[in-house]
Design a protein that fits this description.
With 261 residues, this protein is α/β, with parallel strands linked by helices. The protein is 44% helix and 17% strand. Helix 8 links the parallel strand 6 and strand 7. Helix 1 packs across helix 12. The radius of gyration is 18 Å and the shape is globular. The two termini are 14 Å apart. The protein binds adenosine-5'-triphosphate and magnesium ion. The site of adenosine-5'-triphosphate has 18 residues, from helix 1, strand 7 and helix 10.
Length: 261
């Protein structure tokens, strides 16, 4: 099952796309692990998870006691001794919630880049992500925050594909290009573009004309229904048939491209 990271400029629709892809795979019967790697998590809402279920959900990065227990050092401390390879195998099941075939885990603010701090929390989160990428046979989708500088080399090499989301605009595509360059530098080879909030064919043409050389997996139309769904806490997958259909096409294209390798 593919392991995918979704990135792009702020507000382009990373979380919306991650939620759509999670449902497409879940409906096929895959075990889906959705990982929210945003310091202010909102994938749970985009997935329309019930509040009773997500009430106890807390980003792993904020679990000071747990980090202390596993690494032997308090989060935020540097220089002292701590375990670089703490036990993490029990964490995904213990701290995630499951709904409609999708298991959701919140990581919180994660610094995975090589230049990041060498501290207990980053050691634990890196170990956890490596564990998720290597040892779990789920379809895995990571909803990242904007940029790729948070994604370290080791992790990047284990992701099957990174999807950059872009709107039809120069700024958003400029960010996509920057991400593409950084991603390339840290060794991510399978990088794809998805266009979101397309108003018409001209927008799609603009995206194709200004793509930073990335294969385009597909596009999602802009719809008022997506905003409505967001407001009412219903997943776009259920509320907006055009988005569901577009997400299926994106997955079909992704399957086709990953298969070719
Ligand atoms: N296809 C679409 N049509 C209309 N509105 C959309 C569409 N896709 C996303 N949106 C809206 O745009 C806003 C941002 O979407 P989303 O949260 O998915 O972006 P994001 O890239 O994850 O943002 P952030 O950078 O804050 O994490 C939301 O209000 C969402 O409902
Ligand atoms: Mg988001």
């Amino acid at each position: 099952m593919p392991k995918i990271a979704v990135t792009g400029k702020g507000g382009v629709g990373k979380t919306t796309l991650a939620s759509l892809l999670a449902y497409v795979y879940a409906e096929r019967g895959a075990n889906v692990l959705a990982i929210d790697v945003d310091p202010s998590p909102c994938l749970a809402d985009a997935l329309g998870f019930p509040k009773e279920l997500t009430a106890e959900l807390r980003p792993i990065a904020e679990m000071d006691e747990l980090i202390y227990e596993r690494t032997g050092a308090k989060p935020g401390t540097t220089g002292g001794y701590f375990k670089l390879n703490p036990r993490v195998d029990d964490l995904p099941d213990r701290f995630s919630v499951l709904h409609r075939g999708i298991r959701l885990l919140e990581l919180g603010a994660v610094e995975l880049g090589g230049s990041g701090c060498i501290c207990p929390e980053s050691a634990m989160l890196k170990t956890l992500i490596t564990h998720l990428l290597v040892y779990r046979d789920d379809f895995l989708i990571m909803d990242m925050y904007a940029g790729v500088e948070h994604l370290g080399r080791a992790t990047a090499g284990m992701v099957d594909a990174m999807i950059v989301v872009a709107e039809p605009g120069r700024r958003s595509l400029g960010t996509a290009e920057q991400i593409a360059r950084l991603a390339h530098d840290i060794g991510i080879r399978d990088l794809y573009l998805v266009g979101n909030k397309m108003r018409n064919e001209a927008d799609v043409a603009f995206l194709h004309a200004h793509s930073p050389g990335l294969p385009i997996l597909g596009t999602l139309p802009v719809t008022a229904a997506a905003v409505e769904a967001d407001l009412s806490g219903v997943p776009a997958y259920d509320a907006v048939p055009q988005l569901q259909a577009a997400a299926r096409e994106i997955v079909a294209e992704l399957d086709r491209l990953l298969e070719k390798e």
